[in-house]
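Translate sequence into structure tokens.
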Amino acid sequence: MQSRPHVVPWGMNLEECYRVLELPQGASLAQVKSAYRRLARRYHPDVNPGDRTAHEKFILLHQAYEKLVRVLPTLRVPPLQSEAQSCPPQTSPPLSAFEIQLKHASYRQLQEFLKYRCYQRAISLVEGLASRLPQDAEVRQWQAITYQCWARQLIRDRQPQAAREYLHRALKADPENLTLWQEVEKDFRTLDRLYGKGI
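Result follows.
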């Protein structure tokens, strides 16, 4: 008995989307479009009348394509593991004593702002710190987390467009953070469930 693909509306993560389109993770938008056209012709219901498996595969293809087309233009996909191993690890330049002190003080203040949900102040602080220390990976991570916290508050405040914008900013701030990607994907699914894809 042949197993049928299971249709999961918008529940796929990015890795599953690439797999459905028979692409390696991190494929470009042009590759996604090309694979979608090729596979959509193969599984289109008009080409396979009465074939429920082909119909379900066609739906999965469309869902995977829609998600990737929505996410890829604004985000840089983290490199594949083999690519990451072939490149030397990026290290932050050494910080001066003043910069280290500034960073530690800012981190303590950022924690307070986030604890008390002073998100606008937290964003101002972390953006200023990121402009002062643009190569610092920790600061980029703090910036991404701050944007995500603010986006979640915007979801609670029923401001879906602003929430989407800050989720995108979070991913742009720290694009190599796979845990962040997974968490932000959950937030996008929450937005889709509450407000629909069009918002």
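Note: Confidence is low (pLDDT under 50) at residues 1-10, 75-90.
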